[in-house]
Amino acid sequence: MKNKLEKLVSGTLSETEEDSLLQEIIRKKQDRALRNRWEQELENKHGIKKVEDYGVRVISYKKYVSAFVTVAACFAIFFGIRFFNQESTAETLAINYLHDQEILHAGSYKGAAKEDTFRFEAMKAFNSNEYEESIINYNKLDHKTEEDTYYLSLAYLLGGQYNEAALNFEKLSVYSKDYEQEINWYLALSYLLNGQNDKAKLRLRKINDNEWNYNKALKLLNSLN
Fold it and tell me: What sections of the protein cross the membrane (predicted)?
């Protein structure tokens, strides 16, 4: 690594070698960050702490924890890194895709009826990124339209309530025609961010090459495989 860095500074690496070196540096940084996170979790939850000279030992009130747990924790840190890096990469991609463009409600209601008032307040809150307030008002509607349910589902998703988002998009997917492509995409993101990776894969595979966000769907699938 040192020799490669010296060559990078001196400008004697080829473009391919530079790319390879930079990828290696990034990968090592990600692995180190993940390892630190696991070590912190083991210390906080199980009283297991890594020390420089003696490896892993039991501390504080947990000092009588079994050797089996200690060894298993070590394996979790050092052999689980690749799996959790994969999970982290897919989740990061999903979050980036979710927020890479502003999502706004294009409609407007100005009616005097109570239903119209709730709907208008829900739309206004949605466009102000006040998703909890939008959810509250949408759920006050006695008769939700297909559009209402779609934006309610989006409010759950954008507000971080991934399980509720998935449940509402699932209901909508049964009968919706106007939002079919959008539902496939956002339901896949809901599943992925909710830790339901198998369901996310199935939904992503339903996105055809001539449909919305096909290339992004492929990238997410690759990150999950």
Answer: 64-84
Contacts (Cβ under 8 Å, ≥6 apart) of 73: 42, 46, 48, 56
Q: Which residue has the tokens 């906080």?
A: 44
- Give the integer Cα–Cα distance in Å for 109 and 83: 48
pLDDT score, position 224: 93
Q: Write down the pLDDT at residue 100.
A: 86
- In 76-164, the DSSP E strands lie at none
24, 41 Cβ separation under 8 angstroms: no
DSSP assigned state of 211: S
168-175, Cβ contacts within 8 angstroms, sequence gap of 24 or more: 172/146, 175/146
For position 116, what pLDDT does the model report?
86
d(CA 118, CA 141): 7
Structural domains of the chain, with CATH: 2-79 (no CATH), 99-224 (1.25.40.10)
Q: What is the pLDDT of residue 33?
A: 57
CA 188 to chain centre: 11
The parts of the chain modelled with pLDDT lower than 70 are 1-11, 13, 15-88, 108-114
